[in-house]
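Appendix C reproduces, verbatim, an entry submitted by the partner laboratory led by Prof. M.T., so that reviewers can inspect both the input and the predicted structure.
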Amino acid sequence: MATIKQLASFAVLNVNGGDRITYTYDEIDADTGDMVSSNNKGSFFCVDSALKGKITSIRNYIQENKLEG
């Protein structure tokens, strides 16, 4: 049985000066569309420089457009 993993949510947490990305996803049967499992969780620390740059861009956007005014 082939399955599709569908991202449900994610968050970036500052943990001891590093960025930890947590996420949840659902697993769906690719043939029938039936839910195989839901609310599966995972996490990892960001060590990729390109991804770190994108996280910084999101933080800057929030600071400039949602917190300053």
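The radius of gyration is 16 Å. Additional entries are available on request from the coordinating office.
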